Input
Amino acid sequence: MDARLGFSTVDAAVHHPQPEPVVRLRGFTRRFGANTIIEGLDLDIAPGEFIALLGRSGSGKTTLLRTLAGLDEVRGQDVDVPASRAVVFQDARLLPWKPVWKNVALGLKGDVRERAETALREVGLGHRITAWPLTLSGGEAQRVALARALVREPKLLLLDEPFAALDALTRYRMHELVLSLWHRHKPAVLIVTHDVEEAIALADRVLVLDKGRIVAEERITARRGERAGLSGRLREKLLSHLGGDDHGDGVVPFGPIAEAAE
Amino acid sequence: MAALAIDDAAKGKGIAPLPGRSFSLSRFGGRWLSPVLLLLLWEAGSRSGLIPERTLAAPSAVIGTLIDMLISGELPSNLLVSFARVTAGLVLGVTLGLVTGLIAGLSSTGELAIDPLMQIKRTIPALALTPLFIVWFGIGETPKVALIAFATIFPVYLNLYSGIRGVDPRLLDAAKSFGLSRWEQIWHVVLPATLPSLLVGLRYALSISILVLVVAEQINASAGLGYLINNARDFMRTDIIVVCLMVYAILGLGADWLVRIIEARALIWRPSIVEQ
Output
């Protein structure tokens, strides 16, 4: 590993001694009818690790996320995910008929208002506790979604392109917020994105998913905030994987079928 | 033109023109103008003998009759009877609509069992069942209430059922991802999401109930608005008939107002209502 590079390609053969992973997938395969969306995927996520999953539309990244979120059944597959997990979706998916704090407290038991308010203050929305979701801006709604996820103190936080619909400035602020929340709560984070810059800015490890397989894996060792320098080379490398060969053999064409799966 | 000129002058002096002042006629008077004119023509026609009283009583006569009927208690007591009928029918019909709609919406077995029957029922105009209901239930209160109930099941059922089926699956996914049980999902997501559509159904049910009430009350009634109308017809009292028509209209308006109140409270989260 070249320390000056600030990132390193992970060699699958090298065994990293690591604590018990919070997520463990072995040979995970997902098919819709005759179409294989994900094939033979192995994935470990260590506690507190920040992973970015890059992939084009139809690469299977949403399917993988749904599996980790427990939204799809995984009968007879070797899949371990923690019971305490939470998802932030691209569209905030707040229930419009519940005020903000009730959305945050959704499904919680006990003195939930207190906890919801604390979480909302943490994301800087202490002043919108009783607002109706439809009156929020996109960035605010997404912060509520973050608060709703964090209030559960998850071991695994899943972010499904959470900032794709936000403007650049708001997105940048959200990156900072996510990192500060991650530092404080230390969940393992998996962010699904198609934005290479976002992946580099946030993650410890970047995975590139293409046609249901992990085709590249980069570990970023440079400190966050000092990654501007490595951005160029790593970016090129990741982009080349992303834009990689369109006509890989032995893999079904994706296109509309995968879109439907998403 | 004069108003415009004044507005311009006001702007020039930096004075904001009073909003809507130049258009006060069209805003406040305008909409009432033509109905009032019609009433005046009607009154004039009656007084000059152009409209015979046996064809249509004069507005002034109608108002006089209305006051008389109010004072004598004839109108309130009969209105109460009609109101009780429509309420009983509605409670029955809406309850049945809610139950069937929930069953068909929430379970596929329920859908299989209930929806075909409902679609068959829909093709039968409720009022066409009047003779059959008279044979079954006689000519008392039962057929009247039963007709109203029968007619109001469907709008409630259909709107509830389609509302449940139209719930955004992404919201359900989110609820599921936060570990909500099936019943919690129904309570927190499905039912509130269905409410706007259900209220539309309720509004239809209310207006249909009054429609059916009018016809059902013509079945040999001995009290109620329909009885008043039938009686008035026998004595060619067009003034009483018009009074009763007015009361039916007011009932309809009242029903609409009721649903509006419910909507404003239950759907307060909707932006159109939030912004007000």
Notes: Chain A has two domains: 7-84+154-261, 94-152. Confidence is low (pLDDT under 50) at residues 245-262 of chain A. The first helix of chain A runs from residue 61 to 68. The beta strands of chain A are 7-9, 23-32, 35-45, 50-54, 78-80, 85-88, 156-160, 188-193, 205-210, 213-220.
